[in-house]
Design goal:
The protein has about 190 residues and is of the alpha+beta class. It is about 45% helix and about 10% strand.
Length: about 190
Amino acid sequence: MIYDSLQEFFLIMVIYLCIMASKNIVKWSELVSPTMTPDEYLKIYNDKIAYNYKSYKLKIDVIKRIEKLLNSKNENLKILAFGADWCPDCSKNIPPMIKIFKYMNKNNLDFKILYGIMTNAFHKPGETIWHKTRSPPEVVDPKFDLKKIPTFYFFNKNGDYLGAIVENPKYESTLEEDLLEIILRSL
């Protein structure tokens, strides 16, 4: 009797957790703030990021695998980058992601950049570090769960979340390799 009750309890908890988790998954359609295109970003921040853009060596073989996977699954990729002009990691990693984007077939890609994120120097422990009124609303939306910048969010053609790269690629990895891993795992 107790065993059956425990099974029911755990089943209910699993269902509840699945429902709660699905409510916290971000969608492409939830992006409401104005964004920049990669070309606009390169034009505005050229003085600051030109070296990082030009010097980044693409891993062409990995990019080709990404394109082949997207084509074989008849899928599109949507990229959303969060960042700020005061952030050194943004200046380091957003230009290479743009270079990857520009190399790929843009018929199945969309890339938007959401800049202007501000920190709140007076945040209390447990509060978000992002400024709630001076940053775009997506920054403090729990669905985006923004912890560090830059963060690259990836979505499929239906706008469903696939995964994210937070701040930097994994140790001894590249942006392309991390993106390929997300696509292999999620599509």
